[in-house]
Specification:
The complex is a heterodimer of chains A (about 110) and B (about 120). Chain A has about 110 residues and is mostly beta strands. Chain A is built from no helices and eleven strands. Helices cover about 0% and strands about 55% of the residues of chain A. In chain A, strand 7 and strand 8 form a beta hairpin. With about 120 residues, chain B is mostly beta strands. Chain B is about 0% helix and about 50% strand. In chain B, about 40% of the residues are buried. Classes of the chains: A mainly beta (about 110), B mainly beta (about 120).
Chain lengths: ~110, ~120
């Protein structure tokens, strides 16, 4: 039972354009959502997070949008850079300090 | 800034052997989590500790055990290793009660290969 789903296994974007990565979840008890970036053979690197009481959080080139009614969140990267090429994981938790439930990941490729 | 440290980075074992993975959390972090990532899969939660007490347990085999010590480092002990245990094992740490309490910071992982 995949509670967090990233339905696009891969995404290719031109440098300078916007990258939009999507994530859907089924558990309405999730109250904290995070995006991680991961390179092969390395640990996930925290990018940005959002609490369920918000619908948008922005940090530099990264913005996360949360639509609770649709149980959907998205990560926008603008402008995209070749160094952004990696696998992006969406994750969710439903209690303070609780375990993270990960999506399957989306491999982003930003082409020069 | 100090990050999560894991050792060893790579480990090769034979079937039925035992393995011990170590994790040193970010200084002052009080919670440690262990995750397993199989090839082509997303990380799966194994177990977590808050202030040296087990706080949650996921899909961790009975052959595995873990603990958190007084200095907050944690060890994952794996016995009777099977081929299917080959995976990346990540440790993460967080500071429960901080403003970003649910943000877990991950270590570089230990790649375990069981032959």
């Amino acid at each position: 039972d995949q509670q967090v789903k990233q339905n696009s296994p891969s995404l290719s974007v031109q440098e300078g354009r916007i990258s939009i990565l999507n994530c859907d979840y089924t558990n309405s008890m999730f109250d904290y959502f995070l995006w991680y970036k991961k390179y092969p053979a390395e640990g996930p690197t925290f990018l940005i997070s959002i609490s369920s009481i918000k619908d948008k959080n922005e940090d530099g080139r990264f913005t996360v949008f949360l639509n609770k009614s649709a149980k959907h969140l998205s990560l926008h990267i603008v402008p995209s850079q070749p160094g952004d090429s990696a696998v992006y994981f969406c994750a969710a938790s439903n209690n303070q300090g609780g375990k993270l439930i990960f999506g399957q990941g989306t491999e982003l490729s930003v082409k020069p | 800034a100090a990050g999560v440290i894991q050792s060893p980075r790579h480990l090769i074992k034979e079937k039925r052997e035992t393995a011990t993975l170590k994790c040193y959390p970010i200084p002052r972090h009080d919670t440690v989590y262990w995750y397993q990532q199989g090839p082509g899969q997303d990380p799966q939660f194994l177990i977590s500790f808050y202030e040296k007490m087990q706080s949650d347990k996921g899909s961790i085999p009975d052959r595995f055990s873990a603990q958190q010590f007084s200095d907050y480092h944690s060890e994952l002990n794996m016995s009777s290793l099977e081929l299917g245990d080959s995976a990346l094992y990540f440790c993460a740490s967080s500071l429960v009660g901080s403003s970003s309490t649910d943000t877990q910071y991950f270590g570089p992982g230990t790649r375990l290969t069981v032959l």
